[in-house]
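F.,

This is the one I mentioned.
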């Protein structure tokens, strides 16, 4: 029974690169950014696709692909963090930059530690807090950004609010899912596969939402997304 669940879940994960590929292709062909932060959202989807496909190829050459936990976390932090700092946070920017630096330094340290010291580590001892730290940082950015917008309702941008709320929801769940990552990797229980299934559905829903967000608010265009 468990082996069937593992096979089904492994097959279901291929829906992510398929959805991302179709989403990016549709956006490139038919939509143009109407807001400057839309480019960050588009880049986010592109990086997600690259990271997903790369993590699938990596085990053919190396023992495991757990290094992508830190790599993708760092990419998320830099991309989404810069988007917040440039377009959403209007005050407390120095604190925001400091938080970005501290979180980025922690993830970079974990990445270096995994590559140079824990490359031969047994899965049963694997524990990473990169996604937890990044998720907490991005949720903090989102909550502060919303608070600043609420304090200035005359300047509230509803397109920004929709995106920020989606980011808060997704990274709040990410924080919960990745806190016990060692359990998700090593525990021989049906419950962990149920949680991975929920995480998969949340991730797919998030990518679809970002695609629909760019589609709804993007301008119709003729050649390229970047045009």
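My design for it:
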């Amino acid at each position: 029974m468990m082996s069937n669940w593992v096979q089904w879940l492994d097959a279901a994960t291929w829906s992510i690169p398929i959805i991302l590929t179709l989403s990016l292709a549709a956006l490139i062909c038919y939509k143009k950014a109407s807001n400057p932060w839309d480019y960050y959202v588009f880049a986010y989807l592109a990086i997600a696709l690259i990271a997903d496909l790369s993590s699938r190829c990596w085990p053919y050459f190396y023992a495991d692909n757990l290094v992508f936990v830190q790599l993708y976390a760092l990419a998320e932090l830099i991309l989404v963090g810069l988007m917040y700092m440039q377009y959403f946070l209007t005050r407390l920017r120095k604190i925001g930059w400091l938080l970005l630096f501290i979180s980025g330094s922690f993830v970079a340290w974990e990445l270096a530690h995994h590559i140079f010291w824990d490359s031969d580590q047994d899965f049963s001892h694997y524990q990473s807090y990169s996604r937890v730290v990044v998720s907490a940082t991005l949720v903090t950015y989102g909550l502060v950004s919303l608070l600043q917008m609420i304090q200035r309702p005359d300047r509230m941008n509803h397109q920004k609010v929709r995106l920020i709320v989606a980011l808060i929801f997704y990274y709040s769940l990410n924080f919960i899912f990745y806190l016990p990552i060692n359990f998700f990797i090593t525990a021989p229980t049906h419950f962990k596969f149920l949680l991975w299934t929920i995480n998969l559905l949340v991730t797919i829903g998030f990518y679809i939402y970002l695609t629909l967000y760019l589609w709804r608010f993007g301008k119709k265009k003729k050649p390229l997304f970047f045009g």
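The chain has a mean pLDDT of 84.

Talk soon.
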